[in-house]
Amino acid sequence: MRSSPNRLVATIFGAVYLVVGALGFAVTGGVGFVATEGGLLLGIFEVNPLHNVAHLLIGGALLVAGLSSAVAAKTVNVIVGATYLLLGIVGFFLVGTALNILALNTFDHFLHLASAIVLLGVGLAAERNARAELSSRTA
């Protein structure tokens, strides 16, 4: 794992998102599952139970991929990074609407965009030949 930037980033992000997802439930007591406004995690990030579940699922996917292989980590980093990029952009238009089922706020958008930059940056730039190496080993 030390020689794979994708595995390292996926494992660290996965662990962090699992912790964030679990901690989110401490501030969402009494908040509806898909409420458009939620509790504040760390005093600034708005979350509801669905948002917490999303963090747990994303964290689990990243952690499993990071612990599995460079190819899996690279794939999941790119998928999650692209999803966060889209969510970071679209999220600005969801605040204050009934479509904000994750109870997103401006701080969430900037965190999602920062996560997207790191995950996509590592996923697209590091280990460009990971798939080719895997194919040559199995052939």
% residues in beta strands: under 5%
List segments where confidence is low: pLDDT < 50 over at least 5 consecutive residues.
none
The gross shape turns out to be globular
The SSE order reads HEEHHHH
Structural class: mainly alpha
Helix content: 55-70%
Structure description:
With 139 residues, the protein is mainly α. The chain has one domain (5-31, 40-138). Helices cover 68% and strands 4% of the residues. The chain contains 5 helices and 2 strands, in the order H-E-E-H-H-H-H. A two-stranded antiparallel sheet has the order 1-2. A hairpin with a 3-residue loop joins strand 1 and strand 2 (45-47). Helix 1 (5-24) packs antiparallel against helix 4, helix 2 packs antiparallel against helix 3 and helix 3 (70-94) packs antiparallel against helix 4. The longest helix has 25 residues, at 70-94. It is globular, with a radius of gyration of 16 Å.
Notable features of this structure?
about 140 residues; mainly alpha; two-stranded antiparallel sheet
Question: Care to give the gist of this entry?
Answer:
With 139 residues, the protein is mainly alpha-helical. It has one domain.
